[in-house]
Amino acid sequence: MPTTAPFRLPVLCLGALLALFTGCAKPADPGTTGAGPVKVRFQTDWFPQPEHGGYYQALAKGYYAEEGLEVEIIPGGPNAQVMSGVATGRADLGMTNGDDIIVAIARGVPLRMIAAEMQRDAQGILFHQEHPLSSLRDLDGKTIMAGAGSTWLEVARKKLGINFNLQPLIGDLARFMNDPRFIQQCFVTNEPFFATQRGAKVGALLIASEELGYEPYRAMFGSRDYLEKNPDVAARFVRASIRGWLDYLNGDPEPANNLLRRLRPDLTPEFMAYSIQAMKDYQLVLGDPARGETMGQLNPARLQRQIDLLQEMGVLERPVTVADVATQEFLP
To answer: Tens of pLDDT along 216-235?
Structure first.
């Protein structure tokens, strides 16, 4: 999950710290596992941050241990290869963009989504309030700094019939801060906070929208081989992770935040509070109750729309079905 420059820092002593917190977790119920805790290596897409808070809450409060699991959270970073790591067995389970998982499966990579971490992706459009955007259609005729090759760019052009100039995405806010008309891609849980800290009055639009017809999940996934051989482990991991996320966003987030700050001293309490509130405001993780969304849900109809859209955009190397890309079997 890309972030602004201050967050592109190495993680020091992560293994030792996670081992410490895992060791302090509540011991597993012997009746649950029979032979002690099962080790699970879980790969994230970026350095530890609030957007992973539910997993760290489950670790810090012993929810994984209660399920008979000894979970190691493996951090990502700028060059994290989460899908290849899971596909080759360097990690057991992972999380990343749902549309990327679909594209990989269409290329023959044997993966499967098992739950949604986020009901919609946190990617957005950052703008200055002096020149506001009320919808993605307002990008027509403008220049935007965004990730070249991003699926949503082509979807916006084709679905909304708009045209815009594209500048390659650079991971800082320097140009944005110097030009009140500048527009750039962001994560709504991240860059708006830092731009505001620097004195800008900003707004953000979520890219994922019914208007665009583009609402990819951010998903937990595993290799087909691992899931076939360890269905009970996958189900327990999903159950504990969902419990951790519900507790992190609806209860006291400090157990996870304390762990995150030990792993990432650069994470300030103010930023973490902002990120948590953004996840709530944009209904990213818990979903929109008015649309029948719940934490972890993978809606087959939505998945089919995502597959159809990716097929229409010409990015799938072969046809895939909903059953190819996701399973409901591990959801509580």
So the answer is: 999 999 999 999 999 999 99
Report the first-to-last Cα separation within the chain, whole angstroms. 26
Consecutive H or E run containing 205:
strand 202-206
Residue 7 pLDDT exceeds 50: no
Cβ pair 108, 90 in contact under 8 A: no
For residues 180 and 128, the answer to whether their CB atoms sit within 8 Å is: yes
CA gap 259, 59 in Å, rounded: 9
Looking at 206, 233, 251, the residue that finishes a domain is 206
Write down the mean pLDDT value for the chain: 88
Among 154, 112, 140, 122, residue whose Cα is nearest residue 53: 122
Strands (E), 209-285: 218-223
Residues 165 and 89: their CA atoms lie apart, in Å, by 41
| Structural domain span for residue 106 | 5-120+216-325
* Phi/psi at 185 (5° precision): -70, 145
Which one, of 100, 102, 155, lies nearest residue 318 by Cα?
Answer: 102
Exposure string over 288-299, b if 16+ CB within 10 A, otherwise e: eeeeebbbbbbb
Q: How many CA atoms lie within 13 A of 166 on its CB side?
A: 15
Residue 330 domain-assigned (yes or no): no
Buried b (16+ CB within 10 A) or exposed e, 179-207: eeebbbbbbbbbbbbbbeeeebebebbbb
Q: Which two tokens stand for residue 50?
A: 């609030």
